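Encode chain A's predicted structure.
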Amino acid sequence: MMKKTFLALIVGALLAASCTEQTDPNKLHLTGSLEGMGDTLIASVIQSDGNTPVNDTIVAVRGNLDALIPLDQVANVMLTKISDPEAPIVLITGVPGETCELRGTWDEYTLNGSQFYADYNQMSQAIDPAIKKLRNLLDKCMDMIDNGKDEEEVSALYQQESPALMEAANKAMIDFIRQNPKNEACATLIPNLDGEEQKEALQALDPSVKTGRMSVILQPIIQQMERMESVGEGKEAPAFALKDIKGKTLALKSLRGKHLVLDFWGSWCGWCIKGFPKMKEYYAKYKNKLEILGIDCGDEEDAWKAAVAENQLPWKHVYNPKESQLTDDYAIQGYPTKIVIDPDGNIAKVFIGEDPAFYEYLDQLFAEGK
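Encoded structure for chain A:
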């Protein structure tokens, strides 16, 4: 009897120590099992500041995870297989002090566990039907490409079917946030929205979520929205001076007098390159009324010059070095971004992506009689 009591005390002490460690406020407790995950994984912590991920090796014992991952703030945690680097990744919003239980397969899994992940599971169940329809369309398009279908045909299908599916997915996310404004997991939906929908979703969130531990996700978005408002249509375009293709300084103010398009691009941006033939067509059409200034972003200087030459781009160009704050000043969200500036130096219109509306706008702007 004494022996059993002694053993019970030891087991109780070990369990107490285990519980204390697993609820460490500076660690994520990862449990559960995924079919086919193997016995050794790499957990990469990706902070919102973009610093190099911190990698950690975690081991599954008899197919079950029970790992503590150091976290000093909310961050993305990416799981990859050592045995199969080409396998899909598992991406988790890691929250220190919480327990995340993974279940399912490597391709399709659920998150549950302590309060945050229970809330996350509730959110997923509510929005997944709408998200899955959009995901199915993407899978269909990828299968078509793999089976040799023409890319233009696939692109046309996606452009035809995706708007309604995206609208339904966005509505499902916003509706859930409105109905559950104090659910911290809602913060993870905000980066998936943009424009007015993103603003609407942020306004629906309870202030406690915005200022709490999820602020590491939300504050950069809020700051970006504030910058966008400062460079909205009708506002004066932020001044800058950068080196042109010949190494001479070119200031924005020197280009006043006719309409100007700032084209934020990079040689690494496929859609930027695809858009050049149409841009050249419209530059030739309206070059007496319009100037274009290409602003290269994210390239080494040699790659920038080579891309300008290879694509035979006839307009003015400047190089935007990595230490520059210009993309922040103009609240650039994606590439290409085209910003039309009027002859007085004010922002007239902003187009994100390779958008046909940009060319329609130019035709309207320079229509006969204007």
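Residues 25-113 form a domain with the Immunoglobulin-like fold (CATH 2.60.40).
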